[in-house]
Amino acid sequence: MSAYILRRLLLMIPTLFGIMLVSFVVIQFAPGGPVERVIAQLSGSDTGATSRISGTPGGDFVSRGMEGGAGLDGGASKYRGAQGLDPEFIKQLERQFGFDKPAYERFALMLWNYVRFDFGKSYFRDVSVIDLIKEKLPVSISLGFWMMLLAYAVSIPLGIRKAVHDGTRFDAWTSGVIIVAYAIPGFLFAILLIILFAGGSFLDWFPLRGLKSDNWALLPWYSKIIDYFWHLTLPLVAMSLSAFTTMTLLTKNSFLDEIRKQYVLTARAKGCKNARVLYGHVFRNAMLIIIAGFPSTFVAAFFAESLLIETIFSLDGLGLLGFESIMNRDYAVTFATLYIFALVGLFVSLISDVVYTLVDPRIDFEAREV
């Protein structure tokens, strides 16, 4: 097992390199950029997600460009909308964002810094990227942790019950509910919940923004817990919808496949009770496919699925941060979060393989080709 783990750790290096290289190349061909973002704000044509130039590392350059740009040489520029701005101001912006260097040199420098976990500062916020991620992480952890707990706590027992009662009326109507729920996009369901329960057009039972009330610090400890889950209810339900449906059907099919195997018939013929057969023999084998899907579920719960939900419910987490950094062309934040998410995903995948051996000792990764 140790040799397999070592091989997997070594394979993470080219995998991370490939992810960062492809993303970096794509960004080079994407229209716009941080320099164009500043120029657009100067010209009043900015349509980004947010406008946060004032008080940022680029703010001094912006003020200088506004003071001395008008009436200067408006020659051709590689940046759209740069006509009429001081060429020296444009060069200062390029140095500020690192675009005065060739692309390959910027990529190599970025990788060297990331290996040392030096992610630099945000382009448009006067704060380091790692501090920014630490600030937003608790919100995403809250959503991801409780979503996974809820999805697994409901889906696995429900999937087992559906497998045991396959073909019955219970299986039929729950399958209908699951299919309908799977067809509803999470963000659309979130909007529906707001309309119904957050003061949209009907009931006003739940808050619309954040995970805490304004007077949260003044509340006693038990009221803080209630207030926290009160705010968490709607976003958690919206995020759990797709994970719940997928996990339930996966659990049912996995258990159903195991129940029909010969060793189950043999155990029952020997007089073993159904509970012992189900949880003593079937459960361990059927759970392998559930464990196999854990890495993707984990990464999606903490990072991918939270983007739209955090935006809709105004939750200041990693999903909203990623959306704003892309829209604002804040490449420092975009690449740093991509690197961290990819690294976490690779390690979770490795942990998932290790858990395989705990669930089923027959699995031997030493003899497996990676």
Features:
single chain, 370 residues, mainly alpha, globular
Describe this structure in words.
- By secondary structure, this protein is an all-alpha fold.
- Helix content is 70%, strand content 0%.
- The protein is built from 15 helices and no strands.
- It has helices at 2-29, 34-43, 59-68, 87-97, 103-115, 129-164, 169-183, 186-197, 221-259, 262-269, 274-292, 294-304, 306-312, 318-327, 331-359.
- Helix 7 crosses helix 9 (221-259).
- The longest helix has 39 residues, at 221-259.
- It is globular.
- The chain starts with a helix and ends in an 11-residue tail after the last helix.
- Residues 51-76 have low confidence and may be disordered.
Spans with pLDDT under 50 lasting ≥5 residues?
A: 51-76
The dominant shape is globular
Biggest sheet details = none
Helix content: 55-70%
Count of separate DSSP helical elements: 15
Order of helices and strands: HHHHHHHHHHHHHHH
Q: What is the count of β-strands? A: 0
Spatial gap, N to C terminus: 12 Å
Proportion of strand residues: under 5%
Average per-residue pLDDT, rounded, comes to: 77
- SSE class: mainly alpha
